[in-house]
Amino acid sequence: MTRTDLNIGLFGFGVVGQGLHAVLARTPGLRARIGRIAVKNRGKARSLPAEVFTYDKNDLLSDPGLTVIVELIDDADEAYLIVKEALLRGKAVVTANKKMLAEHLPELIEIQQTTGTPLLYESAACASLPVIRNLEEYYDTDLLESVEGIVNGSTNYILTAMHRDAQPYAAALARAQELGFAESDPALDVEGLDARNKLVLLLAHAFGAVVAPAELLAVGITSISELATAYAREQGLIIKLVAEARRLPGGGLAAAVLPTLVRPGHELAQVHDEFNGLITQSTFADRQFFLGRGAGAFPTASAVLSDLSALTYGYRYAYKKIHQNAHLVLAPDAAEVDVLVTFDDASGAPDRADFVAVHQEFRSAQRGNYLTGTIGLGQLARASWLRAPGVCVVRLASPLRAAVAVPAALEEAAVA
Ligand SMILES: NC(=O)C1=CN([C@@H]2O[C@H](COP(=O)(O)OP(=O)(O)OC[C@H]3O[C@@H](n4cnc5c(N)ncnc54)[C@H](OP(=O)(O)O)[C@@H]3O)[C@@H](O)[C@H]2O)C=CC1
Ligand SMILES: N[C@@H](CC=O)C(=O)O
Fold first, then answer.
1. What is the secondary structure of 331-394 as a DSSP string?
2. Which of 210, 268, 198, 206 is nearest to 239 (CA)?
3. pLDDT tens digits along 13-69
4. Which residues form the Aspartate/homoserine dehydrogenase NAD-binding domain (predicted)?
5. Ligand positioned closest to the Cα atom of 80
């Protein structure tokens, strides 16, 4: 096998960009060198000589000597323009930018297919965990039934600090930012949007379903109430932010990001701090669990490094499942979820008519109110009370599952 040398144009020299620089310096076996680095702020002190840096993206994009673009900036809109331009100019691209990927995946897949130029992004889903290439290659023929896990390091860091170390939320978030785990806009982390972007990538590579982020229900950790935390503690359970995608027996896919009650013996209960954990369930391999660091300079750079190495032997994603599973589409109205809903009287109670069944209801002027019940996933996403102030929704420990009555439209789609 011939392996090519890589001459890299690097965009971004922040947490991950600097991590990559350090990692490459310690990996002489990979014949890769960073030729030039594009950054944004002229006033910033840099750890490398000034001549390495440029503030003009075209210095990298139009340099024929730079054959690979590594995009590690924190601006998804600008990243999209850079990545698209690089691919159209025939430069292979490695990116960690899950927001940009999730928002533009159909177009970026099409550009890869028409140009034949690779775009790799292992670090964009679960940082150091080798997830994307495994879903794409190892599970290319095994029938995946579900992928489920903790895919955001910052929120797991915050929830761990609050649960294990009794730290206040604000202090835990500030520490996640200091450690370089959080996005520049941490709302992406704490509102579940970063996890949703990663779920978009997992859906494409696990099931061949290319969906827009807005099609997926995502609830973050900011609405988790004291009552929900107390409920979890009393039941001996732990709250984790879990992304889940599951193939439904009647055809279709259910997928969502929700704070979730996890039992102590469950794999995800062992995922602490900024670690991520992903469980795959497949027909032949059965259950597997990936665990590793989900954020931070070196863990993320290690996945970028692995993509660079893959480029040297001509690797590109084939998006095999898109061709295999053309019929697999999101079907939130064919799925149900068991939830705990806490609410105060001022915000108004969730509409009981939205539920397939209400299992338990508790009201207390002192402690607050809650109910537990089963609700359609699509109905939950549409519920007007879901985002009301004072309302907290946490998934109970059971997975997403097929609704008892499958909508007729989906049954027809499954037959076709
Ligand atoms: N941090 C992590 O653990 C992980 C991050 N990621 C993703 O990696 C990417 C980078 O994250 P991270 O390193 O943490 O971010 P940082 O905020 O630490 O660094 C961002 C870098 O991007 C540069 N930049 C911003 N806009 C531009 C632009 N228009 N042109 C050129 N350079 C620009 C900044 O320049 P300047 O130095 O001048 O300010 C800075 O060097 C993001 O997409 C993030 O989502 C993915 C997995 C994990
Ligand atoms: N902000 C992200 C960084 C890695 O993807 C996270 O916390 O997971």
1. -GGGEEEEEEEEE-TTT----GGGEEEEEEEE--TTT-EEEEEEEEHHHHHH-TTTTSTT-EEE
2. 268
3. 999 999 999 999 999 889 899 999 999 999 999 999 999 999 999 999 999 999 999
4. 12-122
5. 1
In CATH, which of 3.50.50.60, 3.30.360.10, 3.40.640.10, 2.60.370.10 is domain 135-296+327-415?
Answer: 3.30.360.10
- CATH domain 6-120 topology: Rossmann fold (3.40.50)
Instruction: Name the most confidently modeled range: 1-5, 84-88, 135-139, 342-346.
Output: 84-88
The domain segmentation of the chain, as residue ranges, is 6-120, 135-296+327-415
Question: Is the CB–ligand 1 distance for residue 97 below 6 Å?
Answer: yes
* Tokens standing for residue 95: 């990116």
What span, in angstroms and rounded, lies between the C-alpha atoms of 123 and 142?
A: 23
How many CB atoms neighbour CB 16 within 10 A? 28
Token digits of residue 81: 């323009």
- Separation in Å, CA 58 to CA 66, 117, 131, 411: 11, 19, 32, 51
134: left (phi over 0), alpha (psi -120 to 50) or beta: alpha
CB count in 10 Å sphere of residue 330: 22
Residue type, 320: K
CB 30 within 8 A of CB 309: yes
Amino acid letter, 343: F
Ligand 2 centroid to Cα of residue 293, in Å, is 10
What mean pLDDT do residues 233-239 have?
97
Is residue 197 in contact with ligand 1, taking CB distance under 6 Å?
A: no
Atom of ligand 2 nearest to the CA of 96: 5
Using CB atoms within 10 A of its CB, is residue 164 exposed (0-12), middle (13-18) or buried (19+)?
A: exposed
Ligand 1 atom with the shortest distance to the CA of 13: 41
